[in-house]
């Protein structure tokens, strides 16, 4: 049976991971915009991959379930790359919670029902989740295990509890990692694994637009004051994704890998400590890039 890799959010990072784990597989590229999915599919097809496309809104259970059915009709789902979302600089608090928090939990639940034995998935989260102060054990457990359709009713997510879009984004990204940890137990019942990756500033065409835009000075400051002293590339995230999704990572599940050039370390213990956050820096990993609602 044909093996399927489903890539949700068809930007540079999703493509980079797909290229490393999809040799001999069919790649289904899904995005909220058909033109984005088509463009990514053409790039991979030109590189020798068999591809198809779909439109998906990850904040809709009906839409995600339809994507699962489309993938199932193509073959056996052995890989899922969830790289879709919106950022603090792109969306309202409500949109961030519906797409980044609820949407990720929904994708994990729906694909967790059908993932093949030996299959694996990665969720692209963000370094922002690592910068949120510690939550209570009760809050962590609620974000990790509350039934998906009850998540947005949690008290800590209600109006007045979230300061701004950045706060909503940080909580959403923390929730992504917690949700992956909890879902790893359920996915193991099917013989499958799931992990998260939390990138820092990764250079993509849209990230370059941000670096050259009104918030560019702040983003460049984060890069310059990080231990690595540079931004990352989609291929570097792809390398981590390959480890997590391949047999070489067979003992890794329920984990999160921070790949940010040490920016978070600098945020807490280095020259970035105490500096005001960059406006819109909730998406400092991929400004404008990681959006399945784009």
Q: Describe it for me?
A:
Helix 1 packs across helix 10 and helix 4 (93-112) runs parallel beside helix 7. The protein has 294 residues and is of the alpha/beta class. The protein contains eleven helices and seven strands. The chain has helices spanning 12-21, 34-46, 61-74, 93-112, 128-131, 137-145, 165-188, 205-211, 216-224, 234-245, 263-269; strands at residues 3-8, 26-31, 50-55, 76-82, 120-124, 193-199, 256-259. The protein has a seven-stranded parallel beta sheet, with helices on both faces. It starts with a strand and ends in a 25-residue tail after the last helix.
Features:
294 residues, alpha/beta, seven-stranded parallel beta sheet, 44% helix, 14% strand, globular
What's the tally of helices?
A: 11
- Tell me the span between the first and last alpha carbons: 33 Å
Helical content band: 40-55%
* Main sheet overview: 7 strands, parallel
Question: Based on CA inertia axes, which overall geometry fits?
Answer: globular
Unreliable stretches (pLDDT < 50, length at least 5) are 279-294
Write the SSE topology.
Layout: E1 3-8, H1 12-21, E2 26-31, H2 34-46, E3 50-55, H3 61-74, E4 76-82, H4 93-112, E5 120-124, H5 128-131, H6 137-145, H7 165-188, E6 193-199, H8 205-211, H9 216-224, H10 234-245, E7 256-259, H11 263-269
Parallel strand pairs: 1-2, 1-4, 2-3, 4-5, 5-6, 6-7
